[in-house]
Each structure stands twice: as structure tokens, then as C-alpha cells.
Amino acid sequence: MELENIRFLAGYRRNWLFRVQVLEELRDVDLDGLLLGQVAGCLPNHPEPQVRAPIHHLLWTQALVTDLDRPLGPSHILRRAV
After folding, report:
1. Using an 8 Å Cβ cutoff, are 17 and 61 in contact?
2. Which residues have CB under 8 Å from 31's CB, separation 6+?
3. pLDDT tens across 11-31, in order?
4. CB burial readout 8-19, b (16+ within 10 A) else e
5. Cα angle, residue 18 at apex, residues 58 and 61 outer, rounded to 5°
6. Of 39, 55, 63, 72, whose CB neighbour count within 10 A is largest?
7. Please, are residues 75 and 35 in contact by the beta-carbon 8 Å criterion?
8. Pairwise CA distance, residues 60 & 75, whole Å
9. Sequence ranges of the domains in the chain
10. What is the structure's pLDDT at 46?
């Protein structure tokens, strides 16, 4: 399962695919402890897909971490990397 999640997140590895403004706003929001499904609500001025994709990029770059041992979904708890 971990390998499948890593393969999925690899699709979000290129930071030039995402709006810089959204990435910066997400980095400024305290996402530690939020559920993956709640993150889109943190930036209500942006459409959900434009928030969800950069979150997956932050997981790929390990700026955020979560349990990858089960299928990635809205109930995953996000943690800031230390």
C-alpha cells in the first residue's frame, strides 16, 4: 500500500504545476493535525482541486507527512515534518 501511495504522490512532484500563491498560502496555514479531507476548507477562496493538488505536492516533498500504510484518503491526519 505504501508503494501505491508513493506512486500516486509522484504525480504531484513537479512544483511548477501548481499556483505559487496557493502553495505559499498552504505553507502559512497550520495544517498539523488536520484531516486530509478538511484541508480544502482552509483556503475557501480557491477551488477544492486547486488546494488538494498542492497538498499532495507537500506530501510528496515531505513538508507534510501522513500514514502511507493504508489507502490515502480524507481521514488521513496531516503532520508537519520535523
Report:
1. no
2. 39, 42, 55, 64, 78, 80
3. 999 988 888 899 999 999 999
4. ebeebeeeeebe
5. 20
6. 55
7. yes
8. 18
9. 2-80
10. 93
